[in-house]
């Protein structure tokens, strides 16, 4: 029996609805396959926690998380109560950085049963590798000068090490897929970081003569995600570009509510973290209508990471079967609630 200790942080808003749903599904698939079990330890770190304690997690929060095999997170943020930069940098981004989760993998593919807004061919299957630790997300040297002429200064940090690591990861994945890497650039408008990014991309590509490469400016690339996503295999992008591209990747599948993500620690020193692409969706929180598929597919990515690819594949197949059968939430054209969709997935898993 393989047993896993998982730290669970439901977070805010719909995170508190889709995380329990995904854990029920995870338990069901573990039961069906046998030989694998999970113990979940729940951490209520969130904007509620912030209002009670003045911080998003306790001072020893990271120490506590360190001993788990993986972290399963819902979403963080309740901007009406806590400013986003405070809640996110106090929890989600803090964990990504301190635990050196330097790569964010975000797949997008044609998903059976989902209507896509695409006009062209919809048989796409792509993987965005998002640099997850630096880039445009930086506190270094930034500040706001107040006074009559207010100025906000925001630096971006692109290290050779961080850039190369993300790009190399993309090439490695491409070798196991269809052998093509697209780099998201913007070297026509951003004069330091993006020419540097292009140079590193070119340098790394020398080590992978069997992999085809293309560089596309992020503006055009965003348009191509809508007009011809089927041409992409692996796409590598900086932190911000990857963030934006993956919301597009989600919506071309059918909804922001279905896309999964994995924040990967590469050096084995810290746990990796699994959380969907979507946020806490305050506009629908508490209504029981959030789409659980993003969180459930995220559980599949956690299964893959733990070495249970076959179980993960089975899980995704069942979720697609259920979607195709018409049991779905309102964001993807159904009438189902979070609980109904989850129940249907569990029933079909056990069939
Ligand atoms: P969002 O992803 O929460 O919501 C965008 C839109 O998509 C909303 O209309 C929402 O209802 C819908 N949506 C999202 N997930 C859905 C689901 N599972 N089912 C059905 N509909 C869904 O993005 P936002 O509104 O920009 O952000 C809300 C809060 O979440 C903010 O505080 C933001 O900072 C935070 N956020 C957190 C994460 C994270 O923790 N990983 C990610 C993104 C945003
Ligand atoms: C995501 C989110 C976060 C990000 C925000 C909430 C800081 O949008 O995980 O996609 O930009 O990384
Ligand atoms: Mn995002």
UniProtKB/TrEMBL annotation:
Keywords: Manganese, Metal-binding, NAD, Oxidoreductase
Transferase recorded as keyword: no
Domain of life, per lineage: Bacteria
GO molecular function: D-malate dehydrogenase (decarboxylating) (NAD+) activity
EC number from the UniProt entry: 1.1.1.83
Name of the top EC class for this enzyme: oxidoreductase
Isopropylmalate dehydrogenase-like domain residues: 5-345
Catalytic activity annotation: (R)-malate + NAD(+) = pyruvate + CO2 + NADH
Swiss-Prot/TrEMBL cofactor(s): Mg(2+); Mn(2+)
UniProt entry tagged with the keyword Glycoprotein: no
PANTHER family registered for this protein in UniProt: D-MALATE DEHYDROGENASE [DECARBOXYLATING]
Entry similarity comment: Belongs to the isocitrate and isopropylmalate dehydrogenases family.
Identification of the protein by name: D-malate dehydrogenase (decarboxylating)
Lineage: Bacteria, Bacillati, Bacillota, Bacilli, Bacillales
């Amino acid at each position: 029996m393989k047993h896993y200790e998982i730290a669970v942080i439901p977070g805010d808003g719909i995170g508190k609805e889709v995380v329990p749903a995904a854990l029920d599904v995870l338990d069901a698939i573990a039961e069906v396959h046998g030989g694998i079990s999970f113990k979940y330890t729940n951490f209520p770190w969130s904007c509620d926690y912030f209002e009670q304690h003045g911080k998003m997690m306790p001072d020893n929060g990271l120490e506590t998380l360190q001993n788990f095999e993986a972290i399963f997170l819902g979403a963080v943020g309740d901007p009406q109560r806590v400013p986003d930069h405070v809640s996110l940098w106090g929890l989600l981004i803090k964990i990504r950085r301190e635990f050196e989760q330097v790569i964010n993998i975000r797949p997008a593919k044609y998903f059976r049963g989902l209507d896509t807004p695409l006009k062209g061919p919809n048989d796409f299957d792509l993987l965005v590798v998002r640099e997850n630790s630096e880039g445009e997300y930086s506190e270094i040297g930034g500040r706001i000068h107040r006074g009559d002429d207010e100025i906000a200064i925001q630096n971006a940090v692109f290290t050779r090490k961080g850039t190369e690591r993300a790009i190399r990861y993309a090439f490695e994945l491409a070798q196991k897929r269809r052998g093509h890497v697209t780099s998201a650039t913007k070297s026509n408008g951003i004069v330091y970081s993006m020419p540097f990014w292009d140079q590193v991309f070119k340098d790394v590509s020398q080590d992978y003569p069997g992999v085809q490469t293309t560089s596309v400016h992020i503006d055009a690339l965003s348009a191509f995600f809508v007009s011809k996503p089927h041409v992409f295999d692996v796409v590598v992008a900086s932190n911000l570009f990857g963030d934006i591209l993956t919301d597009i990747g989600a919506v071309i599948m059918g909804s922001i509510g279905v896309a999964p993500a994995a924040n990967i620690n590469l050096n084995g020193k810290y746990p990796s973290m699994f959380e969907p692409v979507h946020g806490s969706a305050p506009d629908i929180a508490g209504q029981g209508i959030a789409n659980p598929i993003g969180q459930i597919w995220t559980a599949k990515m956690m299964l893959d990471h733990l070495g249970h690819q076959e179980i993960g594949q089975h899980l995704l197949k069942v979720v697609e079967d259920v979607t195709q059968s018409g049991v779905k939430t309102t964001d993807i054209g159904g009438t189902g609630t979070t609980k109904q969709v989850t129940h249907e997935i569990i029933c079909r898993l056990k069939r």
